[in-house]
Amino acid sequence: MADQTSDKTITLQPSWKNHLIGYIVSVLLIPLFGIGLVGLYWVYKRQKKHSYTFTDTQISSRDDKYQRNIDLVNIENVLVQQGWLQKKVSVGDIKLETTATSMTLQGIADPFVLKNMLEKAISAQKERQNKKQETKPEQPDRDPGTMERMDYLTGLWQQGLVSNDDFDKEKKHFE
């Protein structure tokens, strides 16, 4: 289930197909004193417990107690893990590995499509980071404060407090 909240933020939740066995068992247990209704509620709450938010710079995993964030530039490896039933229903877990930790996005529909999108986003973010580091601020042609001192001298000259000869002589120091 995808919920696009803004242009650069996407929120996903685990697919109901990831909990297919829980739903089937719960439906089969409904005739047994309504136990299946409790099971359906429990499986539904378990499915809705997790949400994953993707932005241009990071991925967040949130459950009812905790939130974890991983910056895209720190992700070194993206793996897809699927069990037999998950392969049949086109669902899988995506494991994101960094040097310090890992995060597993559970029950994602079409995991290989998301994996490819994540890999593109990771490489794009790393390129942006490298360009940002390579781009150095332009060095000014003059020492810091030179323009302020030149403006001060010009003001003195315009007020008539400095003669034309003194102004020209002092101006040469700033060029």
From TrEMBL:
Taxonomic source organism: Fodinibius salipaludis
Entry superkingdom: Bacteria
Transmembrane spans: 20-44
Record's protein name: DUF304 domain-containing protein
Record keywords: Membrane, Transmembrane, Transmembrane helix
Disordered: region residues: 126-150
